[in-house]
């Protein structure tokens, strides 16, 4: 139950991180453009999805005396939201890739082009994860190599990398606005 509540509370961390990402994309677009709006909506839906993943896990553990079928239903709901709910993350990576690769090039780009390629590859490598809804066993299942482990490694590598890139962007492009 404590882990479920921690997941729900962690949603608060997504708000400032998402707002920062929206500001970065807005700067890359030189104003509020379609990518900025799409990213803002994507961050909002990601926050909701993250909250309800923890909520579903809490629901599964709230009354342990319930029938096993109900507990399994709530647990499956949580895990499939957590593992299979990647279209929002996918869109986030696509928007970041577009903001770094498609927006007009400058001598001092806001988002490094290499990070756009990393974001694009993260999006591409996450696509097979959607098969978790169709397969219960094997490498594409929710606990398989393609369904869980490859996306988990991408997540573990991408988000600390995104944090480091964001800090560099803040130093280069936002410190002069104080």
TrEMBL record:
The keyword Transmembrane applies. The chain crosses the membrane at residues 6-25, 32-59, 79-102, 114-135, 147-170. This is Uncharacterized protein. The lineage of its organism: Bacteria, Bacillati, Actinomycetota, Actinomycetes, Pseudonocardiales. The keyword Membrane applies. It comes from Kibdelosporangium phytohabitans. Keywords: Membrane, Transmembrane, Transmembrane helix.
């Amino acid at each position: 139950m404590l882990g479920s509540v921690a997941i729900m509370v962690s949603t608060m961390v997504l708000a400032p991180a998402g707002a920062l990402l929206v500001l970065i994309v807005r700067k890359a677009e030189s104003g509020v453009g379609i990518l900025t709006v799409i990213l803002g909506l994507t961050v909002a839906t990601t926050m909701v999805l993250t909250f309800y993943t923890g909520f579903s896990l809490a629901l599964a553990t709230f009354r342990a005396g319930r029938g096993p079928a109900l507990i399994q239903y709530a647990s499956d709901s949580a895990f499939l939201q957590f593992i299979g709910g990647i279209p929002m993350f996918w869109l986030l990576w696509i928007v970041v890739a577009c903001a770094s690769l498609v927006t007009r090039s400058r001598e001092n780009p806001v988002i490094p082009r290499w990070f756009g390629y990393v974001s694009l590859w993260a999006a591409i490598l996450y696509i097979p994860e959607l098969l978790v809804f169709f397969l219960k066993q094997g490498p594409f299942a929710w606990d398989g190599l393609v369904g869980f482990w490859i996306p988990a490694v991408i997540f573990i590598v991408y988000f600390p990398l995104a944090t480091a890139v964001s800090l560099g962007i803040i130093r280069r492009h936002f410190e002069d606005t104080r």
